[in-house]
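Model the whole thing, not chain by chain.
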Amino acid sequence: MSNFKLLKAPFNRENPITVQVLGICSALAVTVQMKPAIVMALSVIVVTAFSNLIISMLRNTIPPRIRIIVQLVVIAALVIIVDQLLKAYVYDVSQKLSVFVGLIITNCILMGRLEAFAMAQKPWPSFLDGIGNGIGYGLILVIVSFFRELLGSGSFYGHKVIPQSFYDAGYIDNGLMILPPMALITIGTIIWVQRSKNRDLIEK
Amino acid sequence: MDSLFNLFVRSVFIDNMIFAYFLGMCSYLAVSKTVKTSVGLGIAVTFVLVITAPLNWFVDTYLLKEGALTWLGADYADVDLSYLSFIIFIAVIAAMVQLVEMVVEKVSPPLYNALGIFLPLIAVNCAILGVALFVQEREYTSVAEVTVYSFGSGIGWFLAIVGFAAIREKITYSNIPAPLKGLGIAFILTGLMAVAFMSFMGIKI
């Protein structure tokens, strides 16, 4: 696979969330509004890219028996750096993300990509693979948060977009969109749309 | 006593790990094909949670928090190691899972046969680290609270995965639109179950 393909495949056909089923755990809770979702997506991109890079550089020196713990230590160190940076520069968002930044450590995308890709490939392709998977994951987060914020609070990235005249005419924000269940149903719908476009992804 | 029961009910139904925080979704989706295996995984998660969450609380309270090292002497009173908590928590969890696996193997082979294959999976289950971090964030003050909270979260996770597996066993016979089969319907089902669980939100105890 060419490098560009490595970067691009996870956006759609090998999307970590909708196709590889990795990393749903920690993400959905931050998709009520777009801003935390984007910050979360960026954090994950940074962590996936650099953990892939570091593990790939170390891959020949890590004894196979203890590789899980080595991977966890590398990931945890990167997450601590990201967490401290978020606390220093965007404190309000970091309050909103609460424990979910820490939970990037156990995000299955990281372990999944490290095991499946970085342990066997050279650093540069691994780095691109990490960025690609991070973006593929972020894309889903942003789409979900876009719909939840638009329908749930009538705004886009914190700005009201639904005009007051709509509300005067009787339009009401859908309160259910803000609640956790709708994140799951939105993802289900995204999968539905994606698989009707790419029919070979359909499960038997 | 009242507040502990309250905490238990909250953590099982209202703050359910899956339906309210989406924690542990990976193994939840992967190991819910049959009710039998999901019961095994549910018990294993509860078991590991009840062991690791109080342990991590002790580590946090006596080693990491600001001022936690006061017991070493007045010089250490303003040491704050809380930035290390992620790495320490995950190390404690991984070590405990390994230890539990070995102890269970020695002490009770039948239990090991039932839980054995799930234990390594659990080290990277977000629900375990999630509970440890929630305990830290919400600043529970006694070990009883932490134990009850972690037990409740485990039971909540158990209920969720067993219920989901039961529905999933039935749904294989239903006529679902092809692109929605498998993963898609799994998400929508979980969403609907979460809506059902939300009816507990109104309870004030």
